[in-house]
TrEMBL record:
Location in the cell: Cell membrane
Keyword Cell membrane part of the UniProt annotation: yes
Coiled-coil regions listed in the entry: none
UniProt domain Penicillin-binding protein transpeptidase: residue ranges: 348-674
Protein name (Swiss-Prot/TrEMBL): Penicillin-binding protein 2
Topology in the lipid bilayer: Single-pass membrane protein
SUPFAM superfamilies according to UniProt: beta-lactamase/transpeptidase-like (SSF56601), Penicillin binding protein dimerisation domain (SSF56519)
Domain (Penicillin-binding protein dimerisation): residue spans on this chain: 74-307
Membership in a protein family: Belongs to the transpeptidase family.
Parts of the chain that traverse the membrane: 27-48
Superkingdom field: Bacteria
Length: 686
């Protein structure tokens, strides 16, 4: 019986365990099903997030990786004179262009250049040995061959190996520099200047119909090569205006060397044309315009499958100058013809509006005394520093007013030779003291008294003059004099809208050169530019505003129908760089003195030859004792304005190293300039 119950309970126990096991199996399955369900939910949520929430973001990434923009050149803005006459225009020419694809290698370009060289001919005169070596090594096969010739090539990293190969290929060229090879190398050089998906010019001059046809015929074998359009500068009114307008580099020459890195950072390609100097350089952002933009889509092999022009580009804006082209030509001719013989080294002239700073004409020539050859140098008015002489005396008198050593009501001093130690300095009309004269400040300007100016300088320096005594002046007198000169623009940049202006030449100061401070007072020491002299006289003519000179008066669009000047986008407004604080009486004295230079009653007046002009002219002449090649010469200058009672035009000029006895060259030239101005620029009832 015990065994029975024992077996019974054992069986029951086993049965019970089996039943519990059956109950645990569904729980495990349920757990698995639950986990799978959760994973499916997470997956569905993630898919929804990718498609609905972040879908646009990933689409933009895909589009970014599979689409690009190709930029195309547009026509450059043109340059006109004040009357609307075209000075620098554009000539349209057919061109062969190359657009570098996204995954194009140098070996690919090598192959295309070789094929294209059998179709077109390009100039090769400027091709260098380095460029020929680069072309040869662009071939992957040639590069491998050259690598084996480089000593210890296995120890070099890739960059070092390329550099070593290039040096070796230049030193021992592994190629024959045939005409065909050089033609292909020149083509490759142009092509290699293009960055990814940028276009460069391979040939832009004298492209023949046959070349156009063959490029089209072999288009499949010349990926990236197309027929396009190029614009080059032309000068319908003559190239004499180029020193002012500047020039544009050719696509063949590429970007200007001095500004290459700057322009590359602005999105230029290496072989792109750009303004090279003068206005073309200064106003490059205006003249350049904005490039066209074509959106392209690429397939997985980076081949273009779609191209859509998104922006046609906008041609550059035009510049309208304040310069009158007809007057400018006459001014250039007058300056050229004003050259005497001997040691004369050049003449420079500026004509400007004193009330707004607009330059109406600027011309200059250099002359080689050895050969007599005269060459155009219009920019010499702003980068040639000249010892001008007495034209600066108005600034000297102004400084004396401000230093309170004289006043407009009390300014009389006696002209006399100045004797300091062993030296004697005097006025041109009173070298030995036989013409000692009492002079007011206006009278001193009329007769161009050096003695008067030297006495002012000594008073400003706190020195009591005693004839024969040493000149015991503080060296600070140089700073005092130059400080007043600077206010008028003498010895500082004028701010003209042209690059590379000079500040002038400043002679050494200090006590060792203290005697030169007297020379400084009458303009026979420091050097100034003709443009600075024009700005100085304009400041007095307009009542004390030192205005920034400019040759551009308007930035204008292009008329879509006529292709000529369009609407004004920007007008260059007068800009005062500083104001010279002259009282009404101080200004009156200066203007009275300049008027007396021409119309005064003294037999020593220096500008009487201008009295025949109408409207009336006020002026200050200048004579500086100079030297050239060891011989004494004379530099003549002149600063003037007209009409005297209501100034509308300033004429400033300088003539360097004339014969020692030269006297009227400056006034003769000034008379011709004024007559041409009133005839061609501003007609007046005279």
């Amino acid at each position: 019986m015990g065994n029975f119950f024992s077996r019974f309970f054992k069986k029951k126990t086993r049965t019970s365990r089996h039943e519990n096991g059956n109950k645990r199996i569904p729980f495990r399955l349920n757990l698995i099903f639950a986990l799978v369900g959760i994973l499916f939910a997470v997956l569905i949520w993630k898919l929804a997030d990718l498609q609905l929430i972040q879908g646009n973001y990933f689409k933009s990434i895909v589009n970014k990786n599979n689409s690009s923009t190709v930029y195309g050149n547009v026509q450059r803005g043109m340059i006109y004179d004040s009357t609307g006459k075209l000075l620098a225009g554009n000539k349209t020419e057919r061109a062969i262009t190359y657009t570098r694809g996204p995954k194009v290698t140098v070996n690919d370009m090598y192959q295309v250049a070789n094929r294209l060289s059998k179709i077109i001919q390009v100039p090769t005169k400027k091709l260098t040995k380095k460029q020929m070596a680069q072309f040869y090594l662009a071939s992957s096969e040639h590069q491998k061959q050259m690598a084996t010739k480089v000593s210890n090539h296995q120890a070099l990293n890739p960059d070092q190996l390329v550099e070593a190969e290039l040096k070796l290929a230049q030193k021992k060229p592994p190629y024959q520099a045939t005409d065909q090879f050089k033609n292909a190398a020149a083509i490759y050089t142009s092509m290699s200047g293009a960055y990814r998906l940028t276009t460069t010019y391979v040939k832009y001059d004298h492209v023949t119909n046959q070349e156009i046809a063959k490029v089209g015929e072999h288009a499949k074998q010349l990926p990236g090569v197309q027929v396009g359009t190029n614009w080059t500068r032309e000068y319908p009114d003559g190239k004499e205006i180029q020193p002012i307008t500047g020039t544009v580099t050719s696509n063949q020459a590429g970007l200007p060397e001095s500004r290459m890195n700057q322009l590359l950072s602005q999105g230029y390609s290496q072989n792109e044309a750009a303004g090279n100097n003068s206005l073309e350089e200064q106003y490059e952002p205006v003249l350049r315009g904005s490039k066209s933009q074509t959106a392209i889509k690429l397939n997985s092999d980076n081949q273009i499958i779609k191209a859509v022009k998104q922006y046609p580009g906008r041609r550059g804006d035009n510049l309208q100058l304040s310069i009158n082209a007809k007057f400018q030509k006459e001014l250039q001719e007058m300056v050229k013809n004003a050259q005497p013989g001997g040691n004369a080294t050049g003449t420079y002239a500026v004509v400007m509006n004193p009330n707004n700073g607009a330059i109406i004409g600027m011309a200059g020539v250099n002359r080689d005394p050895k050969t007599g050859k005269v060459s155009q140098n219009d920019l010499g008015v702003m980068n040639n520093s000249i010892t001008m002489g007495s034209v600066v005396k108005g600034a000297t008198i102004y400084g004396a007013f401000k230093s309170k050593v004289i006043t407009p009501e009390s300014s009389t001093l006696t002209d006399m030779p100045i004797k300091n130690g062993g030296s004697i300095k005097s006025s041109w009309f009173n070298k030995n003291g036989s013409a000692n004269l009492p002079l007011t400040a206006a009278d001193a300007l009329e007769v161009s008294s050096n003695s008067y100016m030297m006495q002012l300088a000594m008073k400003e320096g706190g020195f009591h003059y005693v004839p024969g005594a040493p000149l015991n002046l503080s060296p600070n007198i140089f700073n005092i004099e130059r400080g007043y000169f600077n206010q008028f623009g003498l010895g500082v940049k004028t701010g003209v809208d042209l690059p590379n202006e000079t500040t002038g030449i400043k002679g050494p100061g200090g006590y060792a050169n203290i005697g030169k401070s007297l020379d400084e007072s009458f303009g026979n020491y420091d050097g100034y530019t003709t443009l600075q002299v024009a700005q100085y006289m304009s400041t007095i003519a307009n009542g004390g505003y030192r205005l920034r000179p400019h040759v551009v008066q308007n930035v204008r669009s292009t008329n879509a129908k006529t292709g000529k000047l369009g609407a004004i986008r920007e007008t260059i407004m007068p800009q005062a760089l500083n104001t010279v604080p002259m009282s009404t009486d101080e200004l009156r004295v200066l203007k009275q003195g300049f008027y007396q230079v021409v119309h005064g009653h003294s037999k020593y007046k220096t500008g009487g030859a201008l009295a025949e002009l109408n409207p009336e002219v006020s002026a200050k002449t200048g004579t500086a004792q100079t030297f050239y090649n060891g011989q004494a010469t004379t530099t003549l200058s002149l600063a003037s304005y007209a009409p005297s009672d209501h100034p509308q035009v300033v004429v400033a000029l300088a003539m360097t190293n004339l014969p020692d006895n030269a006297e009227s060259n400056n006034t003769d030239l000034a008379k011709n300039i004024y007559r041409a101005y009133w005839k061609d620029v501003q007609h007046t009832d005279k």
